[in-house]
Amino acid sequence: MIKIAFFSAKPYEQEAFQKNGLSSKFEFHFFENKFNAHTAGLAKGYDVVCIFVNDKADAEAISILKTLNIQIIATRSAGYNQIDVKAAKQHNIRVVRVPAYSPNAISEFTVGLMLTLGRKIHKAYNRVREGNFELAGLEGFELRDKTIGIIGTGRIGTMTLKNLSGFGSKLIAYDPFPNDEAKKYATYVSSLDELYKASDIISLHLPLSPESLHLINKESLVKMKDGVFIVNTSRGALLDTQAIVEGLKSGKIGKLAIDVYEEEADIFYQDLSEKIISDDVFSRLLTFPNVIVTGHQAFLTDHALSNIAETTMTNIQDILDKGTSANEVS
Q1: Is 264 a catalytic residue?
Q2: Is 219 a catalytic residue?
Q3: Which pLDDT band holds residue 21 (cuts at 50, 70, 90)?
């Protein structure tokens, strides 16, 4: 039986894996600990390590896994920037991911953030809970009046365009590799600068890489409309958060909705309600009335959790049985 050590394991994930039809072929052990070089030793006696977005499978951690005879690192995410793939390859440890657990889950959440902040639904909710039914200050806008720019038209970006298409917005997109499905809903522009200049709302749907690190920064903000609305449900480090704070203070950014944060690893997926958050930049973000921050939950639907479990276990089974997986990271 294949023994899998899960790290950063939450109850809702455990349930999804245990309910899956393939679970009888695996032995699970769920650690709440984040995976890193300090906790890698917990994987002793297992065949596979299964990690999540805020774990850290760097070269040091991977070298420890090699001594433990770990064969596979499986990430329960589409992105794999938390894994030193080069180090894994050097140690002959295979890496697999879940490229498309539910593009619609993240797309729906993205649109939900646009609607919530654009119509100030979150403020209305809080007012009504306090018995305040005053409407002053709750004026919003209609998506049909806006030009929405989508950066990245992979599965999630394309699904976001599809879901937005019913609102009547003008949809534009940028991606170095355009696809025909996205063209059904949006017009591709030739450069990021063109998208920055034309968009009232900009939504990010691309992986984190050295090239995309701090894609939205002081220089790119200058090229955008005053009062631009930025949405990020991809990876936190696509935004230079310090530049974002300055943009909010100056009014260059009119609205910001983020489900990810570049230093989220020490904040998200835990209850800090009785503690002081020491990250001053993050704390500053929370003070702005035109900002919504959620804790990396865009993926969190029953459908997505089921698909994550199914694909992860199939990936592992394929590597062990066939020597290859369609979702292996090379």
Answers
A1: yes
A2: no
A3: confident
Q: From CA 7, how far away is CA 14, in angstroms rounded?
A: 11
Paired residues of 38 in beta bridges: none
Considering the domain architecture, whether residues 62 and 146 belong to the same structural domain is answered as no
Identify whether residues 35 and 51 lie together within a single domain: yes
Are residue 140 and residue 150 in the same domain, yes or no? yes
Return all residues near 300 (Cβ < 8 A) that are at least 6 apart.
Answer: 12, 105
Q: For the purposes of burial, counting CB atoms within 10 Å of the CB of 185, is it exposed (0-12), middle (13-18) or buried (19 or more)?
A: buried
Domain region containing 20: 2-101+301-322
Which residue in the block uniquely carries the two structure tokens 């890698």?
40
Same domain, 140 and 279: yes
Query: Do residues 113 and 246 both lie within one domain?
Result: yes
Distance CA 105, CA 108 (A): 5
Residue 275 belongs to a domain with what CATH number?
3.40.50.720
> Same domain, yes or no, for 118 and 191?
yes
Q: Is 303 a catalytic residue?
A: no
- The single residue of 94, 155, 205, 235 carrying the catalytic annotation is 235
Q: For residue range 67-84, what is the model confidence (pLDDT) as tens digits?
A: 999 999 999 998 899 999
Residue 99 CB neighbour total at 10 angstroms: 17
Indicate the DSSP class of residue 73.
E
Residue 91 shares a structural domain with residue 154: no
Which among 76, 94, 155, 296 is annotated as catalytic?
Answer: 296
- Percent of the chain topping pLDDT 90: 95
Asked if residue 112 and residue 95 are part of one domain, the reply reads no
pTM of the entire structure? 0.91
- pLDDT-based confidence at 38, cuts 50/70/90? very high
Summarize pLDDT for 187-198 with one digit per residue, the tens: 999 999 999 999
Q: Count H helices, E strands: the chain?
A: 12, 12
Catalytic choice (264, 303, 310, 328): 264
C-alpha distances out from residue 66 to 11, 117, 244, 299, Å: 28, 47, 40, 31
H or E stretch including 172? strand 170-174
